[in-house]
Each structure stands twice: as structure tokens, then as C-alpha cells.
Amino acid sequence: MKSLTPSDTDLAADEVVDAPPRSRFAWCVTGSGHFLEEAMALAMRLPAVDLFLSAAAEEVLPLYKFRIDELKQQFRVVRDTTASGVPVGMLYDDVYHTVVVAPATSNTVAKCALGISDSLPTNMFAQAGKLGILGIVFACDTEPVVVTKSPHDWVTLRPRRIELSNVERLRDIDFCQVVSSPAELEAALDARLNELSLAWNTSSS
Questions:
Q1: N or C: which end of the chain has fewer CB within 10 A?
Q2: Helix (H/G/I), strand (E/B), else coil: 3
């Protein structure tokens, strides 16, 4: 795995090297707007979080009023700019204790369930599992009827059997915890913080 360069990530090399072992959350954002605002609010409450953005996430986040330059004021931001997923190497450097994919599109869920790694979030998820690092996935299409917020309105979706079966398949993946609502995601993160003897931030500002 080659070294990171400024074009690969917005993190300085010394920031990565100097991070204590397994001291940070890696929060992966995909192209889903489903409970995106709620998921990002939880990310902002966690200590020591780096955002890993897919190419689709970079397109979708501004549609929900999340500007990348503003996110950089609170998070270390890693972008999906390399074909080989170079930033995944930070997992090998033992920087992260938890990988969160939230929210996860049905496309991302299908890839993770089938072991396909062709984006930054799916690469992070796969390599985390191989390293025994917990992955928490907030899957979008988990019920026969899903009401989701688009950039302009609320939309009712009816996931197909293939989407629902992929979620169940994902639940069987090693080192993976699947959640299906903001409340479940918060509970999973709360349990993880307790396991690590960490606490929520008292302020997200």
C-alpha cells in the first residue's frame, strides 16, 4: 500500500502517523439522503471522527445543506479520489477502532453483503472486517415501505425483495452490525462508546 498524498486525502501524513492506536471512528458516507441529517448529527456528537466520502456522497451532501468545506471545520475529511482506495491503508496503520457506514444506500449494502469493494466506503467496510474491526452499517432499505426525505420532499419507497434479502445477507457478515433507524444507530454507537470507555461530546459546535 503506497503512502498517502495530499490528493488522496485532506489529512496530513503526520496526523495519521501520530494518532494513538485504534483511537478514532471512521465514518463512511454514501450517496443516500435517507436520514442523512440524523446520521450526520450523531457523527458530530462522537469523539475523534474522520469522514470518508464516496464520490456519490460528495454530490449528495450539498443537496442536504452539508457543505464539504464546512464539514472540514469539524471533521478530518477523506475523499474517494483513488482507484485502489489508498486511504484504506489507515486501517492497516491501526488508527480506527470502528467503521460506520451511515446512511448506506441499497447499492452499498449489496456490495458489502457480496464482498464487492469498489468505492471508499465498501473498501473500508471490507478491510475493517478482515482486520477484526467492528463495522456498523445503517441500511436504508430494511422495511417493505420506507418513507425517506429527498432534497425537496418526502418520498415513499417500496424496497424489492432483492434489497431486503441483501440486508439479511449483510447481517451474517463477520464483524458487522446492521441497524435500520437513527434510534438503532444511536444505541449501537452508545454501546460502542461504553465498550471503549468513551463518551459522547457534550456539544457538536
A1: C
A2: coil
CA–CA separation, 79 and 26 (whole Å): 12
Which pLDDT tens digit goes with each residue over 111-156?
Answer: 999 999 999 999 999 999 999 999 999 998 787 777 777 777 777 8
pTM higher than the cut 0.85? yes
A 10 A CB-CB count for 169 gives: 15
Residue 157 in 3-state DSSP?
strand
Return d(Cα 102, Cα 142) in angstroms, integer.
14
User: HSE (CB half, 13 Å, CA atoms) of 70?
Assistant: 9
Residues near 139 by beta carbon (within 8 Å), at least 6 away in sequence: 103, 104, 106, 109, 167, 170, 178, 179, 180
